[in-house]
Amino acid sequence: MKLLKKEFRLCLHPTALIMLLLSALVLIPNYPYAVSYFYTTLGLYFICLDSRENHDAGYTLSLPVSRRQAVSARMLLCCCMEGAQMLLCGLLVLVNRALYGGIPNQAGMDANIAVAGQGLIVFGLFNLIFFPSWYRDINKVGGPFLKASVAVFLYIALGVVAAYAVPFVRYQLDNARPECLPARLVFVGCAFVFFLAATLSAYRLSVKRFEKLDLSL
Amino acid sequence: MKTNNAPLSVRDLKKIYPSFRLEGVSFDLAPGTVTGLIGRNGAGKTTTLNAILSFVRPDGGEVTFFGLRMEEAATAIKEKIGFVSAGMTYYTRKKLRTITSVTRPFYPDWDERAYEKYMARFGLEEDKTPAALSNGMKIKYALALALSHRAELLILDEPTSGLDPVSREELIEILLALRDEGKTILFSTHITADLEKCADRILFIRKGRLSADRPLDAFADDYRLAEWEGDMPGDAAEKALGVCRVRKGRTALFDRADAEALGLSARTPTLDEIMVHLDREEDAL
Q1: Contacts of A212 by beta carbon, 8 Å cutoff, 6+ apart
Q2: Chain B, nearest residue to A59 by Cα
Q3: How far is A3 from chain B (nearest CA, A)?
Q4: Tell me: the pLDDT tens digits for B218-263?
Q5: Taking the model in full, what pTM does it have?
Q6: In total, how many domains does chain A have?
Q7: How close does chain A come to B56, measured CA to CA in Å?
Q8: Pairing relation of β-strands B223-229 and B266-267?
Q9: pLDDT of residue A39
Q10: Interface with chain A: mutation pick from B106, B107, B110, B129, highest number of A CBs within 10 Å
Q11: Residue intervals in chain B for CATH 3.40.50.300
Q12: What's phi and psi for A69, nearest 5 deg?
């Protein structure tokens, strides 16, 4: 908890909070809503970039903590930001539905609970690719972010296409009909399992790599 | 095996990079002493400190703090040591008050009165940010944090680099006062004049190897420095450990025994002169 508090007080870059506000993109009538999750990952990139500039690793590892704990705290901070956006998006999806009364989205998934599933997949993919790659060398933040962003945008593009081309997505997920709710819930459940598995794998791999890393302080 | 409870004990420390090797570094620090780690830029001083503190992973050797190994007792060790590096400033835009309030909970032995005492003694204001502090004040803040958690061993990497002579003198006085309080200090620098004022012992590192581990006075007394106007005699040139050109001629460093055998009129050299002349020997090899 002490380390998490340190992450919030010293490492949380204001840009990450501003990016959370871009959850409001789900209020645009026709927009690929999964893109709003990308902005949160951009905020996480700024957190890690700012950490490098502030020699955060040197400070953290001079405290009485282990490298494993340092990785846990950083990933927990990022998961908190991801969780905050999930909540914010959930609320704004309800606002969207109240404003537009379920007008179909022409640019991807309609505003419904399945959008949360997309968010979980975006974050799971980002965590899985970005963190292990960054902890290989914490002075190089851009490369890992680029790799993770490519994967995230491929998934988002796939999601937009699938909303038209894949019958299950088109008829079960991309609408707000109550009879399709079980399918949407199953999708969100599977996405949650994917997020957990991806983030856990990312954590284990990140710890392993950070333990071996020679820090050039 | 005998347990070594020295504040810091290093045995055969090794770190290999593609273009640099640190090898065979072994030494012990006695409690309540100031030890200077000297060597030219790139000799391996910072690598040694980083390997000791596990910032870089050593490829061999053993490091113990107060008899404990970092891999087994990192938390307990870090509660008893303080690391200060001149080249590293954390969170330059955060107020000192914020950095302190985040740091404080990590140390069960945090002494708030000591913190207030050192902040006042060093003239530090909590409303300032590190970016608004001079290099000397940044070092003092790092020292204040280390001393407030009652660090018994202070490891300082080039703390006097970039400081003006008055600030350097002030820092040396602080270190001497801390030594008198029983703190153990390991102090890396290439400004050897600072060590002549405060070090009890010298560790001299050359090209990744520890070439001397001696009390300061004995280390300087092992050598003699002779000066010539014009060329050196041939027998002296053969025995010289290193020769430098000066305005009026040459200076040469000798083992004390050689200087005495040659009957040279020579004096005890300063640390700077030893370092410079021995590096000339290396360059000539």
Answers
A1: B57
A2: B90
A3: 9
A4: 998 999 999 888 777 778 888 888 888 888 788 899 999 988 888 8
A5: 0.87
A6: 1
A7: 4
A8: antiparallel
A9: 94
A10: B106
A11: 8-218
A12: -65, -35
Separation in Å, CA A86 to CA A187, B188, B197: 15, 50, 61
Size of interface A-B (CB pairs under 8 A): 62
Q: What pLDDT digit, counting tens, does each position of A113-127 carry? A: 888 999 999 999 999
Give the ranges where chain A is alpha helix by DSSP (H). 2-6, 14-21, 35-53, 56-62, 67-100, 114-134, 142-165, 167-168, 181-212
**Strand partners of residue B246:** B249
| CATH 1.10.10.10 given to domain B8-218 | no
CA angle A28, A31, A32 (to 5 degrees): 140
Residue A155 maps to a domain: yes
Residue A35, domain member (yes or no) = yes
Residue range of the domain that includes A111: 2-212
Q: What are the tokens at A157?
A: 């593009």
- Let me know if residue A217 belongs to a domain: no
Decide: helix, strand or coil at residue B173: helix
Amino acid type, B56: V
Task: Spell out which residues of chain A touch residue B89, defining contact as CB-CB under 8 Å.
Answer: 55
